[in-house]
Task: inverse folding
């Protein structure tokens, strides 16, 4: 085996770039989070205020609300994506004419920019020009207005996210299903197991790593969703779709309270890392090390 | 029985495809409608397309320079991330370095950060610290290529790792025994074997960079502004001009579609996320 020096040389460029564009800004954010700072005010100095920002956050209803909205969004969106994605992946396991074309079509949403997704759904759902409210009204007499209805706005965003990201789940699960060995399935059929038993006792345990990896990726991305929601609802109506990312955007930029905005960022980052680390340590790491 | 299930399958997939394609189709419909028709009752079928929005956007020199910037930045970034990510994955898979799992996890944490967090520190660092003589990193293409590494490099490492791990280590060892240099082993043995995974990584990082909005909107003013920021810019400056907004969206979507069509065959191979053994 080669000496470790070569390994470090190969890793060095990655680490240097991530240090300058990831770690340094991060340290800076932590530094600022202990200050009160408005760089555009008449007194643009950074004033050290200890843990005041962190104390404030516990009583900040706006922040706690945005955290709740985010968790709800992540839960509904990721769960629906997993279920729909799994069903579609299973359907793709069979052979049927035109399979390749259908799969390509199904993959398309992945490449659409979040900001464009936001504008497409805005074009489709804005009352007076949108096609969805128009036909809901004409066919079912339902009024849908994402500008005033909390439920309409929130569910539109969940549906938008499902449209955008289910293909990723489908693709990873197809990859996992394709690579499964056939023996256990044949064995189970010989032993007379029914479909449900096969799913719970064979398929699910074997694709668990893929499911976890997918949840991992989706969780990270769903938690930082900003662009499309910003475009679609801007966080409204009220604060019903004001996700954490948007809350930071609204807290940091218009109020130019960089100290407090940084504090929120630090907390959010911390919570994200803890959630993902737990997932990684409990589910993925043991399997990787077993593989060698 | 078999024929019947095939037909049901086809109906099912046509329906799914319709749901998938409709938003994209609708974007196109809006982009070829004159303003007056937008507010009348929506028609599902396109009749009498109006190309005024397209010529308006295409003849806009500013937007064309934005498009050029987008192409340069995303291509540069995708190549950089794929190559560096490949090197990093090779190091992680072939060497027993202390703390390499922590390093791996650390690279991914860079991708978790809410992007809004880093806007201000990056802005200040790029205007005041990352400066060489008169040259500032803010609003440069190089700067944006490097900034996009914060989310694309971790992604590249994350998706390439199983691919590189999947290449048998005995191959390298055999080559070393034959007296090949490490550089030769990496570029001539491992690199070609990883090609499908690399192609998908290249494509996905390209698309992520192409689609990025928030960082580009804050860290560029004019010289390195990208198409996605142009989209929001034109929306605000003309009120909400739905037709133009849809047209720029179509222009932004189109190159991504082309890139996608180049490597879509390999997408499943590349996206296995360590879930599948090599």
Result:
């Amino acid at each position: 085996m080669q000496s470790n020096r070569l390994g470090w040389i190969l890793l060095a460029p990655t680490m240097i770039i991530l240090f300058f564009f990831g770690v340094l800004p991060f340290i800076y954010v932590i530094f600022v989070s202990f200050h009160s700072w408005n760089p555009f005010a008449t007194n643009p100095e950074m004033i050290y205020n200890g843990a005041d920002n962190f104390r404030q956050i516990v009583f900040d209803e706006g922040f706690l609300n945005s955290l709740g909205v985010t968790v709800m969004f992540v839960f509904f969106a990721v769960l629906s994506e997993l279920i729909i994605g799994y069903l579609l992946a299973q359907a793709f396991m069979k052979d049927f004419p035109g399979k390749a074309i259908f799969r390509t079509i199904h993959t398309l949403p992945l490449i659409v920019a979040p900001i464009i997704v936001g504008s497409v759904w805005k074009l489709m759902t804005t009352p007076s020009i949108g096609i969805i409210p128009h036909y809901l009204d004409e066919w079912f007499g339902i009024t849908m207005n994402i500008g005033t209805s909390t439920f309409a706005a929130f569910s539109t965003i969940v549906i938008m996210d499902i449209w955008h990201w289910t293909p990723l789940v489908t693709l990873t699960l197809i990859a996992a299903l394709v690579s499964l060995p056939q023996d256990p399935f044949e064995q189970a059929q010989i032993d007379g197991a029914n479909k449900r038993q096969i799913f719970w006792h064979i398929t699910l345990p074997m694709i668990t790593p893929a499911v976890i990896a997918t949840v991992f990726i989706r969780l990270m991305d769903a938690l930082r969703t900003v662009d499309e929601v910003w475009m679609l609802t801007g966080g409204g109506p009220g604060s019903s779709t004001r996700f954490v990312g948007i809350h930071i955007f609204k807290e940091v930029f218009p109020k130019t309270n960089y100290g407090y905005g940084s504090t929120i960022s630090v907390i959010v980052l911390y919570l994200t890392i803890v959630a993902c680390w737990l997932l990684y340590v409990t589910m993925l790491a043991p399997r990787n090390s077993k593989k060698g | 029985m078999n024929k019947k299930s095939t037909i049901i399958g086809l109906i099912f997939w046509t329906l799914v495809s319709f749901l998938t394609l409709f938003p994209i189709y609708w974007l196109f419909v809006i982009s070829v409608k004159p303003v007056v028709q937008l507010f009348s009752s929506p028609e599902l079928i396109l009749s009498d397309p109006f190309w005024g929005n397209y010529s308006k956007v295409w003849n806009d020199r500013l937007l064309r320079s934005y498009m050029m910037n987008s192409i340069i930045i995303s291509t540069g970034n995708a190549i950089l991330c794929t190559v560096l990510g490949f090197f990093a994955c090779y190091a992680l898979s072939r060497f027993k370095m202390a703390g390499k799992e922590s390093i791996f996890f650390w690279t991914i944490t860079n991708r978790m950060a809410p992007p809004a967090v880093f806007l201000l520190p990056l802005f200040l660092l790029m205007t005041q610290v990352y400066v060489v003589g008169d040259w500032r990193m803010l609003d440069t293409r190089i700067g944006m290529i490097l900034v996009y590494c914060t989310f694309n490099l971790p992604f590249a490492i994350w998706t390439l790792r199983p691919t590189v791990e999947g290449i048998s280590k005995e191959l390298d060892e055999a080559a070393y025994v034959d007296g090949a240099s490490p550089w030769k082993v990496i570029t001539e043995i491992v690199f070609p074997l990883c090609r499908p995974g690399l192609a998908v990584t290249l494509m996905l990082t390209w698309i992520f960079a192409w689609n990025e909005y928030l960082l580009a909107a804050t860290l560029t003013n004019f010289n390195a502004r990208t198409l996605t920021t142009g989209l929001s810019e034109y929306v605000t400056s003309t009120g909400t001009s739905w037709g133009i907004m849809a047209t720029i969206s179509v222009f932004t979507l189109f190159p991504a579609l082309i890139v996608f069509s180049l490597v879509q065959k390999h997408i499943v191979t590349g996206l296995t996320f360590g879930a599948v053994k090599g």
